[in-house]
Amino acid sequence: MIWKTTEYAGWGRALKATGEVARPERQSDLLSLPPAPAYGLRRSYGDSALNSAGRVIDMTRLDRLISFDPATGLLEAEAGVRIGDLAARFAPLGWLPAVMPGTGFATIGGCIAQDVHGKNHHNSGSFCQHIARMTLLQRGELVEVTPDTPAFRATAGGLGQTGVIVSAVVQMVPCKGAAMMVTERRAENWDEHLAYLDASTATHTVGWIDGTARGASLGRGIVEEAESSAGLVKSHVPAATVPMNAPHFALSKPIVRAFNEAYYRRVPARGRTSVKPVGAFFFPLDNILEWNRLYGRRGFHQFQCVVPLSSAPALRAMLEEIANSGLCSPLAVLKRMGPGRGGYLSFPMEGYTLAIDFPNRDAARALIKRLEGRTAEAGGRLYFAKDSLAEGGAMRAMYPELPEWREEVQRADPEGHLITDLVRRLGLRSAT
Hints:
The chain is an alpha+beta fold. The chain has 13 helices and 20 strands. Helix 9 runs antiparallel to helix 10.
């Protein structure tokens, strides 16, 4: 197996690493490699897929479907399979992955390592709650891991520290077809936005929030609710590609405000209902390939937190600080989450989650640091998949089951071969 020295980054492109990368074609190739962290398509935003101190294994060619049982909906697939490809292939057959993140380019291995959530978390929980079993490469051996074991809970959302995720058996769920019936309506302010989210009985619910709106309009946005549909729609294909790094003024304050105003007004005041392809609803950002280039060569950071339901006023205060800063991008999402989580380090808790992007600038980094402090004060937590700036002590305190995770990781990887830049930066494997 050839190791190639490569510079690579997470999706935010603010943090980078240079090191040797191997790209195995088959499981036999993987078994011949020395132990190293693995990554997929690097859709985590920060440094969770980086290892600037050593080698990494690119799992994207291990992307085969192994078996599917149409009687039970159990699908076995290799870790490099993209979640969007599963949706495109199986929705016409009446099946979808039970949980899908906001991009179809996330791999099954990545979805497990971050225990991702989707627009239906309030109903269906997190990704790893729908895994029947998975196969890991631990210390040169293939090991099968099943739910309700410490090894499973340490792997679900465990940042790849218990072994290289090789394959998994995923529980698919029935759907009516390859379309979604989507209802959109405006929320005029923060209170109305939360009221819509709280009252929603739809399977899938998500809110786009205008991070530039202030005063009486603070928290305004668009709430989408959706159910699967048998409607006939065209296949969803990307509309464009960002060909190069955008100039620094591409997401300046006036441009972002104008875009957000137009985006808010695109939905009539009375609301509307339409039929969309599965991919267009679940993966709207995939409509523009390489959209991270819009932030220029310096990249961007995303702040995503979740706070308990009782801390909604604290989250509103965070949004007010964001709006007054003039630093946010058009990409901001507000959702209500349920309690479901698959692992010791899984992000979700019952409450509200806010995700918002900021260009990689000094003022934005300072703002994010303040927001992280507010999150801790509110009893919330930050999302490893999006983090690139948090300090270790504060982040570790947000995950009370960290000692249980450490114990299992130490058993699986005592030499520390699988440590990544994020794990190193936050001191997750150190008890001090």
